[in-house]
Amino acid sequence: MRAFVFAAAFLTCGAMAQAETIRPDTSFFTGVYERVGRSGAEVPALIDDLVRITPVDGTWALDVFPCATVADQDAPIRLNPLDFGEVPNILEGQAGPSGLWCQYFTDHSNYPILTCQSEMGARFTLWPITDERLTVCMMAAGQSRP
To answer: Rounded distance, CA 131 to CA 79, Å?
Structure first.
């Protein structure tokens, strides 16, 4: 029985260590994203705006800002890895008073795509943009283009 418990613990630790190495560097997510989806209101409203994602120094975390927010303000959403061990691409954070979960993937051009859902029922997808809206968003935040 002890051998079974030891083996299970060993495999769990190995899976968590593997998740750390599989997860991309936070700089991979840096940029401006188009956010499209629906709000979690009783009568859902369309969400169609732009947000910026920046890595957090010293840890694996991502800050999500509306485009008009200046760079030194606190992020309204901070996404951190959710340690499910074998599922390294799930992030969690707070969107106001409710929890938020996002799962990230890459598209055919190796750009990150985030699909998110909040406890309050909001659902949206984040697609990175590379057109002139990126420059406008970064300038509104007082930053240069990444």
So the answer is: 25
State both tokens at 12. 């769990």
Burial of residue 43, with CB atoms counted within 10 A of its CB: 0-12 exposed, 13-18 middle, 19 or more buried: exposed
Fold of 2-140: Lipocalin (2.40.128)
Rounded to whole angstroms, how far apart are CA atoms 38 and 117?
10
DSSP character string of the chain:
-HHHHHHHHHHHHHHHHHHHHHSPPGGGG-EEEEEEEE--SSS--EEEEEEEEEEPTTSS-EEEEETTS-TTSPPSEEEEE---SS-TTEEEEEETTEEEEEEEEE-TTS-EEEEEEETTS-EEEEEE--SHHHHHHHHHTT----
pLDDT digits (tens, 9 = 90+) for 54-85: 999 999 999 998 887 665 566 689 999 987 66
Tell me the pLDDT band of 97, cut-offs 50, 70 and 90.
confident
Q: Do residues 115 and 101 make contact, with C-beta atoms less than 8 angstroms apart? A: no
